[in-house]
Amino acid sequence: MIIGYITYLILAVAIVLFLSAAIRILREYERGVVFTLGRFTGIKGPGLIILIPFVQQMVRVDLRVVVQDVPPQDVISRDNVSVKVNAVLYFRIVDPERAIIRVEDYMAATSQLAQTTVRSVLGKHELDEMLAERDRLNAAIQEILDQQTDAWGIKVTNVEIKHVDLNESMIRAIAKQAEAERLRRAKVINADGEQQAAQKLVEAGKMLAKEPQAMQLRYFEALHDISGERSSTVVFPLPIDLLGLFNKTPGDAK
């Protein structure tokens, strides 16, 4: 009798172990790459999956977008500036079969490929381009990575450069360059203003030369402005006609 119970118990344990080894449940974002006696036999999921224990094995694959941080890379730009650049990589698996069969560890392989690609692409550009044209550089890196990882069944959806770290001397040099650029713009704006003011003065002088009475009125207006100020300025009115006498040459006086 006891032997019968032990037999039933062993049988029940064997059934439980068989079912636990045979039944798999895959979530909506998971797929199972199934191997039968070591040979690829298909992709299953999502839902309930039944395997033949000890004959079939399954490798789970996550189809969600993976966010991977690219460690800081030492990059020498085309204008010989040493910087540290780190980025963020977004990718997902579109073909579980190739991701498992064609590459040993697709996560490590994609990470290493992203690091070398970042160094290679950014090394072909100058520092100003790294700082001002990140969108174009992101697109270039993403395109290269997507082409190379296509054989692994991986789709690189986006690459974003996060930081471009400069040393202190380069930061000071960039600050001096920006200050010099702002000073240059200020001088150009000031020169443009002087040129426009000179043009307006020439036009005003031509208009006043046509009507001497207008010059007298402008003279009186200037006297009125000066007299209204609380200052110790002494103004001696001088007729304009008298100034004309000083401008005549001796030959004209005769």
From TrEMBL:
Band domain residues: 21-178
CDD domains for the chain: SPFH_eoslipins_u1
InterPro entries linked: Band-7_stomatin-like, Band_7, Band_7/SPFH_dom_sf, Stomatin_HflK_fam
Localization per Swiss-Prot or TrEMBL: Membrane
Main localisation: membrane
Keyword annotations of the record: Membrane, Transmembrane, Transmembrane helix
Entry keyword annotation includes Transmembrane: yes
Pfam families: Band_7 (PF01145)
Membrane topology field: Single-pass membrane protein
Name of the protein described by the UniProt record: SPFH domain-containing protein
Transmembrane spans: 6-26, 33-55
Gene3D superfamilies with a match to the protein in the record: 6.10.250.2090, Band 7 domain
GO cellular component: plasma membrane; side of membrane
Naturally occurring in which organism (per UniProt): Mycoplana dimorpha
Family that this chain belongs to: Belongs to the band 7/mec-2 family.
